[in-house]
Amino acid sequence: MALVILRLLGWRLLVAIPTVLAVSLLVFIVLRLIPTDPAAMSLPPGATAEDLDRLRTEMGLDLPIASQYLIWLGDLATGQFGTSIFFRRPVADLVAAALPNTLELVISGLVLGVSFGMALGMVLFALRGGMAAQMLDLAGSAIMAIPEFLWGLLLIIVLGVSIPLLPFFGRLDPGLATPDRITGSLMLDAVLTGNIQVLGSALRHMALPAMALAMGLVPLVMRVLRASLLDVAQEDYIRMARLRGLSESRILLRHALRNAVLPTVSLIGVQAGFMFGGTLLIEVIFGYPGLGNLMVDAVRNQDLPVIQTVALVYCVLVLALNAAVEVLYLTINPRLRST
Amino acid sequence: MSVIHRLMHPRIIIGGGIVALFALAALLAPVLPLRDPASQALLYSLLPPAWAPGGNPAYLLGTDSLGRDVLAHLVYGARTALYVAVLAATGAMLLGTTLALLAGYFGGWIDWLVARAVDTWMSFPPVVLALILLVGFGAGINNVVLAIIIVDWTRFARVIRSEVIVIRRRDYIAAARLSGFSHLRTLVSEVLPATLPLILTLFSLEMGIAVIVEATLSFVGLSVESNVPAWGVMIADARVYIYQTPWGVMLPVLAIFSLVLAFNLLGDGLRAALDPKLRQRGGVAP
Q1: pLDDT for B140-176, tens place per residue?
Q2: Is residue B235 less than 8 Å (CB to CB) from chain A?
Q3: Which of A127, A136, A270, B130 has a CA that sits 20 to 30 A from residue B137's CA?
Q4: Does B38 touch chain A (CB under 8 A)?
Q5: Predicted ipTM of the assembly
């Protein structure tokens, strides 16, 4: 089993390399279309034409496009991500600070979205054919018509402003000091240092953004699980279980769900790109210091080194989530386990 | 059942009806009895809708922070949303369908190329790609249209390609070729019509997606020029005053919600009505 997973991961890595290269080329070409000169933007006002020329040579902007691309790739491969034009800090530091926050948000959103989606999918299946199921299905369509960041705003209005239950800005209550950086993940560090106060505050700040992110996932998971439960329900072994006199809930939980859950797992892989895309504006709305906020700031300020790097980080994240989903699929799919 | 009869699906009627209402309002905006969306009345800023406490009957849906009429803004914002939706969805459809037809029908290197391109696009959050494209092109509504086309052609290509691969193996395609049809004629007059129901469905869903993307990008300030009303801009402006009045955010959200839901209902309905495979199953696949 471990060997199969290792082989799969090795294969994924091999496939990921050309994909990352293709994305890097795409990003590079698009960003070269930009009308402004990155060298001119990095200079303080009052710089002379000679300064500009010197910096252009320094930044390699006088080289042919192809060499510029190869130099950039070489820098990436050796871990040199450059310096942000706007923040005037190394891009690697900015990403290292933002990445754990985005990962925490995505994982929280996934956990929330998948658990609620699966619960509702089972309810939908149990109520199949009835009025209530149709209403739930229609509610699913309605929820899907609102993009995640607008859910964020609606949640802020309802649970942040009208009934001020939960905080909706930043990562922690003002005045709380962040615990010592051990893993970089705020929640994990709070647990490791035993700082209950920070953990509680971080969880409360996470609630609304994670809910907003989960909103896009819940109806999808619900529908896919319902559909695959309906398919599985036609199988002979379910009829057998029913003939053996097992209760409906036992059949659902012990027999049907195990097989029906597979399409739901692969759905998460398909949705990986949209999940990370969803975090982007949610982070902006909740003032959440993750990659999305960094990206939008960089876009507004045409901060090319940051834009390039964060775009590639997103690509790697999506590929990694895809690989993780495949491993999960492999471990729970009995048909693939023996091969 | 005739096609007309099948199109009388409740989802199609409701979805199509709402879309028609929005389209009508957007087209007729200049002749409707609306205030000028740009005219400011600072004395009447941040009014709630007329029915809410503190509302002013002269401003049916209230005013924004500069005292501009929200109803007029919403109606003119629908023009922006539908302009982007129609152009971007049409462009994505044309590009994606053409590539899918060529890839699925001919196979070989062109199929390989399209499939790899789709994989590359899928390994990337669409919003991030759209943002990068707008950095490259510069902000502006027509660049938003272009960005959506470049980002979303894969939605058409992916689905239609696999459909074409199935269709091309059918006997009537072989028959068309045997009776001397050229490849182009076979593609256009035999393969394309078979994928039309799918294309129509995807087109409707894509218009909804384009509305969302336009709202997202104008929210970030990358879409329209500052004097053009857009729902995303309204939301971004009103967000600052969310403590004084939630209406400024709620109303454009409601507009986006209704229009996108209408496009989705229309798409689901078309799929249920036109796709022979789904007609028996009764369910709507995600």
Answers
A1: 899 999 999 999 999 999 999 999 999 988 999 989 9
A2: yes
A3: A270
A4: no
A5: 0.87
